[in-house]
From TrEMBL:
Keyword terms of this UniProt record: Cytoplasm, DNA-binding, Transcription, Transcription regulation
GO cellular component: cytoplasm
GO biological process, one term: response to stress
SMART domains, per database record: HTH_MARR
InterPro entries: HTH_MarR-typ, MarR/SlyA-like, Transc_reg_Sar_Rot_HTH, WH-like_DNA-bd_sf, WH_DNA-bd_sf
Domain of life: Bacteria
Name of the protein described by the UniProt record: MarR family transcriptional regulator
PROSITE patterns in the cross-refs: HTH_MARR_2
Listed GO MF terms: DNA binding; DNA-binding transcription factor activity
Keyword rRNA processing listed: no
């Protein structure tokens, strides 16, 4: 292979490194989330609700970068499990409001060790993880800004 095509190697592709890293990270989460009987996307939704308490489905979709076709079935399953409630907004019937149930709120305590456990599993120094988080946040913001124009 000539140097002319060095940029075409798989391990030089940002998209591949993000994809593979995301898959590996999700695999590391799996045993921790299995103990709570929730999926990774459900965990992300719970993180939002633990932070905000009440959100519209639309706002959750924006914050999670999920469309309603993906988010709504997941929220229905979470409601069936007794983790959340969904109800029409009294101000705007088109809007659905999502709230934690007491079970959903209580799960926060059981899940509180997950972030530290995951950080430890990366085997990277805290400063490097903080820098990586900042860079990925900037990348996401840059890509979403460009796509929304």
């Amino acid at each position: 292979m000539t140097n002319e095509f060095e940029h075409m190697k798989l391990d030089r592709q940002l998209c591949f490194l993000l994809y593979a890293s995301s898959r590996e990270m999700t695999k590391l989460y799996k045993p921790l989330l299995d103990e709570l009987n929730i999926t990774y996307p459900q965990y992300l939704a719970l993180l939002l609700l633990w932070e905000h308490e009440i959100l519209s489905v639309k706002k959750m979709g924006e914050l999670l970068y999920l469309d309603s076709g993906t988010l709504t079935p997941m929220l229905k399953r979470m409601e069936q499990r007794g983790l959340i409630t969904r109800e029409r907004s009294p101000e705007d019937e088109r809007s659905v409001i999502v709230k934690l149930t007491s079970s959903g709120a209580e799960m926060k305590e059981r899940a509180s060790c997950i972030p530290q456990t995951m950080l430890a599993q990366t085997n990277l120094p805290a400063e490097e993880l903080e820098r990586l988080t900042h860079v990925l946040g900037s990348l996401l913001a840059s890509m979403t800004k460009k796509n929304r124009k």
